[in-house]
Amino acid sequence: MSTIKNFQDIEAWQRARELSKQIYEITYSNELSKDYALKDQMQRSVGSIMDNIAEGFERDGRKEFIQFLSFAKGSAGELISQLCRAADLKYIDQTKYSELTNQSTEVARMIGAFMKYLKSSQLKGTKFQEPETRNSKSETIN
Description:
Distance between the termini: 6 Å
Order of helices and strands: HHHH
Low-confidence stretches: none
Number of strands: 0
Structural class: mainly alpha
Helix content: 55-70%
Shape: elongated
Number of helices: 4
């Protein structure tokens, strides 16, 4: 596994960012844009994936990071449910539904694998290190 210096280095966050762009695109480009409740829920869910990965990383503790990754994974599941509603209401076609659902599932899988790795590692996070070793997060999550 390559060294992670900031949350933007995390592949699951990168993939969630791409997914976010696509969700915002569909929520502003068709009939879904007029269903304010569903549009807003979808935007909040996809944003929550990215934001929880970022917040967990910045907490500097392994257990907290795992907890926030769990929130992010839950938001991916929430987005998949919302995509089902969007497809059922004919806001998106079956092809777009499958594409976005597959991407959401892949992000959730990546988050789950990262959680599993962190649970089995001896890494503790920078807030549990001596002050002189806190200089670089890359020393703690790699």
